[in-house]
């Protein structure tokens, strides 16, 4: 059996953050989150089930990754393989090639787009007629934020439940990504969350505060209140990082602080610019489309900022016509 699918998916940025998991199996977030799926940054994954292989073959950005290097990827593939028509589908294994046109594993949410693309490609190529909720569940177990990238626009993840809250055109918004490193982050989000919950004196405060910030942000989004969304998104990111700092986890670099300074300077000039930061040193800046050019120029002049990517609310993961993965240097294009 050889069946192939090519899927594209985009990362998402959480406006209200998820940080911390529920006890037990299943990779279930401890707090609700609300994200926006980003066009302009793209993961492209080609997957085929091939009876001629002795194990899955997983190639990320041109480099072969062994089972031990990508255990969650292999676990997802094993799970889908067990569901292949005819049990293990004539002993087929997956041949996967995936590429990101943005830095991998440095807090730019490549795991979100990566696991969303992988879950959709693996099930599509297998001919499984799973609905998007079931595919999102599979993706969530690889990386919880990946469940959100199955959907476009503004998306809520609450426990195991994931659903779109508003379409991509609900709130005119540009996300400027100030890239501050091309390197992989030192502490992945799973370890970072575990360390934070074990060691931070502020863990309880975060777990209590995050759902309130989330509810307020959701209301601001539904009211199309750009400044409310921005203010609450920045508050959520700051609270998450304050909690992580309490456990000794510093995801920021000097460039992160510089970029935060630029965002504050912009606000002082009357530009509605708001920062959010994930498990890495990059700063994502929310602005209205009309302010994007000026804000981008300011970020590009900021010490330590290597380049600035521009993203807008975009589509969920989807299958596309089969063609070889393509790397687009520099500027991110879908
Ligand atoms: O789903 P993960 O393991 O990539 O963790 C996501 C963690 C944050 O990006 C910091 C927050 C979020 O809700 O996306």
Task: Characterise the protein shown here.
The protein has 334 residues and is of the alpha+beta class. The chain folds into 2 domains: 178 residues, Ribosomal Protein S5, domain 2; 140 residues, GHMP kinase, C-terminal domain (Alpha-Beta Plaits), CATH 3.30.70.890. It is built from 9 helices and 14 strands. Helix 1 packs antiparallel against helix 3. 50% of the residues are buried. The C terminus is likely disordered. It binds (3R)-3-hydroxy-3-methyl-5-(phosphonooxy)pentanoic acid. (3R)-3-hydroxy-3-methyl-5-(phosphonooxy)pentanoic acid binds next to helix 2 and helix 5.
Features:
Alpha-Beta Plaits; 2 domains; 6-stranded mixed beta sheet; 8-stranded antiparallel beta sheet; Ribosomal Protein S5, domain 2; 334 residues
What is the compact description of this entry?
By secondary structure, the chain is an alpha+beta fold.
The averaged pLDDT comes out at: 92
What ligands are attached or bound here? (3R)-3-hydroxy-3-methyl-5-(phosphonooxy)pentanoic acid
Q: Give the overall shape, derived from the CA principal axes.
A: globular
Listing every helix as H and every strand as E from the N terminus to the C terminus, the arrangement reads EEEEEEHEHHHEEEHHHHEEHEE
Low-confidence stretches: 325-334
Percent of sequence in beta strands: 15-25%
Number of DSSP-assigned strands: 14
Taking all Cα atoms into account, the compactness measure Rg is: 19 Å
At the first level of CATH, what is the class of the largest domain?
Answer: Alpha Beta
CATH topology of the largest domain: Ribosomal Protein S5, domain 2
What's the CATH architecture of the largest domain?
2-Layer Sandwich
């Amino acid at each position: 059996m050889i069946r192939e699918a090519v899927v594209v998916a985009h990362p998402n940025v959480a406006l209200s953050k998820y940080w911390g998991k529920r006890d037990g199996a299943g990779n279930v977030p401890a707090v609700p989150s609300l994200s926006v799926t980003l066009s302009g940054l793209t993961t492209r994954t080609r997957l085929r089930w091939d009876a001629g292989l002795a194990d899955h073959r997983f190639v990320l950005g041109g480099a072969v990754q062994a089972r031990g290097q990508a255990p969650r990827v292999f676990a997802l593939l094993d799970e889908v393989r067990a569901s292949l028509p005819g049990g293990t589908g004539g002993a087929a294994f997956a041949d996967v090639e995936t590429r990101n046109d943005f830095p991998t594993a440095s807090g730019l949410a490549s795991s979100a787009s990566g696991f969303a693309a992988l879950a959709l490609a693996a099930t599509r190529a297998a001919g499984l007629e799973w609905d998007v909720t079931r595919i999102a569940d599979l993706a969530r177990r690889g990386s919880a934020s990946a469940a959100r990238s199955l959907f476009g626009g503004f998306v809520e993840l609450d426990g195991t439940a994931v659903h779109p809250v508003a379409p991509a055109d609900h709130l005119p918004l540009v996300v400027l990504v100030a890239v501050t490193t091309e390197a992989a982050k030192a502490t992945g989000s799973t370890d970072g969350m575990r360390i934070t919950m074990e060691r931070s004196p502020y863990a309880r405060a975060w777990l209590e505060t995050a759902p309130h910030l989330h509810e307020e942000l959701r209301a601001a989004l539904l009211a199309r209140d750009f400044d409310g969304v921005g203010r609450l998104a920045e508050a959520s990111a700051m609270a998450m990082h304050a909690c992580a700092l309490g456990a000794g986890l510093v995801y920021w670099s000097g460039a992160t602080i510089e970029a935060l300074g630029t965002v504050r300077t912009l606000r002082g000039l009357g530009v509605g610019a708001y920062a959010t930061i994930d498990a890495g040193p990059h700063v994502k800046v929310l602005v209205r489309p009309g302010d994007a050019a000026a804000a981008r120029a300011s970020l590009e002049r900021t010490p330590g900022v290597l380049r600035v990517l521009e993203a807008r609310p975009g589509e969920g993961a989807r299958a596309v016509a089969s063609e070889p993965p393509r790397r687009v240097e520099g500027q991110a294009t879908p």
